[in-house]
Amino acid sequence: MDEEIAVGDNVSVRKSTNVPLSFKGTVEKLYANSALLTITSFAEADASLVEDLKHKTVVNYKHIRKGGKAVIPPQPEENK
After folding, report:
1. 49, 21, 55, 23: CA torsion to nearest 10
2. Alpha-carbon distance 32 to 48, whole Å?
């Protein structure tokens, strides 16, 4: 079962063709198809890339995992 995502959640992201590094982070803001994440934990080899990103990045929901499970995008305000 997929997990709901909310601001303040701790999540993980794996490196892929669309994501340049694997890291753990905190959700700062939710968008329609992606979330703004603050990078909190990452490999030492990626330190310069994280500094270039100012410890923040936007990632599509399909690349985000919460508790090892895929996340469910939030419902738009008009559908609530």
Report:
1. -140
2. 29
The rounded mean pLDDT for the chain is 92
The two beta strands, 64-66 and 34-42, are unpaired
- Do the beta carbons of residue 58 and residue 36 sit within 8 Å? yes
Q: Are strands 56-60 and 64-66 parallel, antiparallel or unpaired?
A: unpaired
pLDDT of residue 80 exceeding 60, the answer is no
Angle value at C-alpha 5, between 26 and 39, nearest 5 degrees: 15
pLDDT at res. 40: 97
pLDDT at 18 over 70: yes
* Helix/strand/coil percentages in the chain, nearest 5: 20, 45, 40
Tell me, yes or no, if the pTM score tops 0.85. yes
2, 68 Cβ separation under 8 angstroms = no
